[in-house]
Design a protein that fits this description.
With 224 residues, the protein is an alpha+beta fold. The protein is 41% helix and 24% strand.
Amino acid sequence: MTSAIELLRHVDLFQHLTEQQLEDLAAQTRELTFRKHAIMMTEGDAGESMYVIKSGSVKVYVSDDEGRELVLYQQGPGAAIGDISLLDDEPRSASVSTLEPSTALMIGKQAFLECLRASPEMAINIIRSLTQRLRDATEGSRSLALDNVYRRLADKLQELCVSSDEPDNDEAVTPRKYSHQELGNMIGASREMVGKVMAELVKGEYLEVRDGRIHLLRKLPRNW
């Protein structure tokens, strides 16, 4: 249970809980293991539990009847997902699936609500979290409506890339492989269009793809 307490302690939603409250919450969690591409929750289903990611990573997305996806965001260790439907008793607003083998702590609705009643500070944290999600959604909508595919892709690549783990290398690189389809799902564009833009960026020596990972060689221009 100690590892569960430590994980919960570093989750923004629970950072104001007392040690006893953390222990009580941890005692009611259940650790689950998911294979790669496992569905953790489905848009439209009833929400009876939330999850805290312990290891691995997940994508949060919406889809239409034809199976087309729009990835809202990706989350890694320490992220809390699925809490919204515990608050409003409405169906899940998005689906979540794993991007790699992952583990998560499952927290039932009753345990979550008991913590909320016991800690006003937790309620404030939830408000802040929901506000940030609203801001992110507003920015995403603005980008989809006003930015062209190149600009959306450039912004997404710069968001995904992190400092290289290679010594004496100041390049930014994606932490894992991303297919053109995955990138397209994130920015609301077709796989073919992403491929065309990527090819132009490679030709212009702005980036390289090595072993499937994208390396940014220099800052991407704002417009193309």
